[in-house]
Structure formats: structure tokens, C-alpha cells
Amino acid sequence: MSTTMNKPVIGILGAGKLGTTLARLSTQAGYPTLIASSKPASKIALAVSVLAPGAQAVTAAELTSQAQIVILALPLGKYQTISRQGLAGKLVLDAMNYWWEVDGKENIFSTPTHSSSELIQEFLGESTVVKAFNHMGYHDLDAEVGQGKDGQRKAIAIAGDDAATVRQAAQLVTDFGFDPVILPSLADGIMLEPGSPLFGADQPKAQLQEMLAAFPESKLGKEISTSNQDS
Amino acid sequence: MTTSDKQLVFGLDSFGDVPDDLATDAPVSYEQALQQIVTEAKLADQVGVDVLALGEHHRPEYAISSPETVLAAIAAVTDRIKLSSGVTVLSSDDPVRVYERFATLDALSNGRAQIMLGRGSFTESFPLFGYDLENYDELFEEKTALFNKLLAGGTIDWEGKFTQKLTDVQVYPKLADHQLETYIGVGGTPDSIIRAAYYDFPVILAIIGGDPARFKPYVELYQRASAQFNHPAKPLGMHSHGVIADSAEEAYEIAWKYLRRSMDRIGSDRGWAKMTKERFDFEVKQGSYYVGTPEHVARKIADKMTKVGVKRFDFIYGAGGQTAPVREKTIQLYGTQVIPRVKELLKSGEYHYE
């Protein structure tokens, strides 16, 4: 395990399947890691100690005050429970997706011209939101981590507007064990959402880039192009 | 390390997929699909399968929305096989009525009823029965607590937020001399494992994709949680999809046509891209699909049961419109060849699966 010296503290909001998986990747990469859910820290402590050894279960308030980078891994429909003030000034990685079984039959979070991460950026006005870790299933994140050398590892796409924070996010993705693929803007993150051929993608960098290049020809790609012409 | 036969349980699970008609390739009627399940249950009983678990779904591709009604029909024509749901979506049902129905099934089947409670991977039942998805977790939490009280079989006093107030009531029919066997079906949510340990319910892990070994930490979590609640941990089980045929090629072709179709259909509702051949082959070789000859499937089951750390394996058969003869073939081979072979392999500990 690499040293935790000088590494930023990672805070993961959400202690379900995705949250505990990301916490495990984070501790494996040598980052000091905090994890919190809507429950008291004592309620998730056992699960965290078994599923993400080394990560610390805390309250959401403790997490937002101590973490330098926060990863959102809670159900998208609960985004309004996130503390805007607590996350002000921080880099926030949005790994959430619309999932109808828990978020409701109607996708009220994204449209072909407005990704759910843009909605989160609007809600968290004083944070910098970067979309990351959303397109690969949580069990693939677990299985693929650190497989192969650079260039053969599986890729995670990142979408953000601010070059400096996107670089930080890319470093995190690299340290977690994946190759980053950087999209030009946060709005481009729509290409990684449910309904896109990239949703679920578990591919190396070159294949993921090919899929991105082919995206305009996909059903969602065409819908986006039509919506843009209409507006 | 060797495992004694007696602790092992082998089940067959169905979600009630409507089979395709052999001649037309179109789905048969719901009437035919339900009667086919009864025919298959008789076969499973004859070939020595321990338990049949039927899921509750409210979607066009599945015929079973009321598993316990189907199980009652099966009870009348079988002798030995245990009759389970898999799962009963307790959150969108009335725990008292659920308990009454399974107590009835238990009486009619001479104590062969089991129930598997779960939050369900689909949530169509919420709007259908007038429940709000907003309360997804709270509903399951509260109703599990009430159901646990009902299992004790005595006088009930109860007050909850989403359920009826009960004062000094009894629920009938009473079970003769035992409690209703109750399991929790879990898809990988850590809280669900801990909740099951709290109530001392054994867990069946739904392992429907990826490397099964990734579920091993959940077994440890269940054991550690049970210790924290001061009772010995019950043995866990797992259920996964598969197709068994005389030749590997035939099994692969069936799975590629039907199992993949079923997965793509479910996946597309969730916005996932279609399954690639690479992914499908991974699932067949290292992942969660048990597809091939009886010998191959037996070796893989023995290997994965050991790696995950479970004592029960439920084979989900017939996914995605497989025709009646194909479904029956899987059941036949599972009961007559795979189950005895897995027991043999686990007993000797001498098997190899890559």
C-alpha cells in the first residue's frame, strides 16, 4: 500500500454497494478515506470495517468538514439532502445515476441536453462538480481495478469544466487503478448516462475513445442532436 | 476441508418466465406458462431437488405474480420438495396476509413451505399496490419487524407507521409444531445483510453477474453481524442463472439466445448498453452463469460455493423464454446428475475449475 502522506482526504457520501466499493478502492490506493450515509456512523461501522477495511465511518457533517475531495455515491433522488454549505469550495466527484427502481418512474434529473451532473453542479453552486465513476458497474469497478499496465487498464471517463479540478480527478482515477479519459465539459457527461452505449462500459482507453467517437450515431446521440437543433 | 451432504441444499428457482412456443417461437399463454411450472415442479420433486423457489413479478415476460398460489397447486401434486417464494416483495404487501397465505401453504403441504423475503430488484409492485417508492427502505424495515413478530405464532401487539395497529390478536391458521422457514434474499446491499443477521434469518445472495467470489465479504459481514447480535450465524446460500444440456455447444446456444435476451431486456429498462459477447463469455467462464454439460456445471457450482462460502445453491432455470423441453432438460440433468456430482466433489474436495 502506498503512503497516505500528502494525499488529500477522500470522503464518500453513501455507504451502499457503490459507496463501499469506492471506499475500498480509495483505501487500497492509500488515500485517507471517510465514508458516511444518512444513518449514524455507528450503524454503518460494521459494514465499512468488513467491506472497506481502513476506511472510517463518520457522520455526513464530519465528512464534509474533513474531506478535501468528496465522491457522491448516494441515490440520485436524494441529492437535495447533501449539505451545500458543507461542500462549498470542494472538488465533488459525481458517481450517481438515475435508477428508476429507487428514483421513481420518471427521470426528472436529466434530459438529452442537460445531464444529471449539471443539475448537481447547479445545486452545489459553490463546489466544483466533475462526473466520474458513474459509467462502470460497481462490481466491475471492483473486479477491474489495477488490472494490467497503463494503456491496458480499464478506463473511467471524466467530465468537468475546470481544467485544474479535472486534472485532480484524473489523478484520483489513475491512483484508484484506472486510465482516465477526459471529456471536454461537464455537459458532455450526458454521454456516460443511462441510455448511452457507454453506460456500463468496462473497456480499455482506446475502446472507450472509439465508443465516444461513435456516440453521435447512437439513439441518445441523435436525440441530443435533434434537441439542440430545436432549441 | 470436506463438507457433509446433510448440510447442503440444492434448489431450483424460477421468476416465472413465459416460455416460447416450440413451433411458433412466440410466447405461450399465461395459462400454459403457469401449468408448465406445475409440470416442472413435479419433475423437480421426482429427480431429488430440495427446494423450488418462485419469484413474484408484475411484468409482461413473467407469469407469476402470486407465487404462493402456484405453490399451493404444486403442493397437491408433489411429496417431498420444499416450496418457497423467491422473493416475496414484503414492502408492498400486508405482512399479516403474507403470513396467513404461507401458513396455509405450509398446512396444505405438510410443513414444506418456505418464504424468502426481499426488497425485490424490480419495484413495479409499489405503484401497483399503492405504495410510495419514497419509503422503499422504511417499508421493508417495518414490515420485516412485523413479520418477525408473526413468526413467533402467539398473541400480537403492534403499532407502526405504515402498517395496521394490532392489539392482542392471533393470526390463523397456526403452524403445527414449527416456525415458518424464513429467508432473506439479498442483492448486495450491506444494510440488508445486517438486517437479516439481526433477525437471525438465513440469507440467499442473488449473484447474477460478475465474479461470484466478490460476494465473499458479504458472508463475512453476515457472520460478524450475527456474532454482534449474539447468535451463531446461519448458513448462507446463493442463486445464479444457468442452462444445462447434454453438450456444451447446445447449452451455450440456448443461453446466448434466451438468457442474454432476458438480461438485455432488464438492462435496457435501466439504461445499460446491450451485453457484449465478451461480457457474456466472461460470465459463462469465470462469472455468474452456469452453462454447459452436467460435469462442467457441477464443477463450477462446487468451486463457486466454496469460494463464496455458502451451503445452499439455487439454480435459476428457464430465463428469457426458453422452450418447455429445454427447461425440463435442465431440471432433469440438474437433479439426476449435477446435484449428486456437486455433493461428491465437495465431499472429496478434489475438483478443479478454472
Automatic annotation (TrEMBL), chain A:
Pfam families in alphabetical order: F420_oxidored (PF03807)
Domain named Pyrroline-5-carboxylate reductase catalytic N-terminal: residues: 10-98
InterPro entries registered for this protein in UniProt: NAD(P)-bd_dom_sf, P5C_Rdtase_cat_N, STEAP_metalloreductase
Keyword flag rRNA-binding: no
GO MF annotation terms: cupric reductase (NADH) activity; ferric-chelate reductase (NADPH) activity
GO annotation (BP), single: copper ion import
Keyword Oxidoreductase found: yes
Gene Ontology CC: plasma membrane
UniProt keyword list: Oxidoreductase
Identification of the protein by name: NADP oxidoreductase
From TrEMBL, chain B:
Name of the protein this chain belongs to: Luciferase-like monooxygenase
UniProt keyword annotation of Oxidoreductase present: yes
Taxonomic lineage from the root: Bacteria, Bacillati, Bacillota, Bacilli, Lactobacillales
Domain of life: Bacteria
Alphabetically ordered keywords of this record: Monooxygenase, Oxidoreductase
Listed GO MF terms: monooxygenase activity; oxidoreductase activity, acting on paired donors, with incorporation or reduction of molecular oxygen
A Pfam cross-reference name: Bac_luciferase
Domain Luciferase-like as annotated: residue spans: 27-311
GO cellular component: cytosol
The UniProt record lists the keyword Nucleotidyltransferase: no
Gene3D superfamilies hit by this protein: Luciferase-like domain
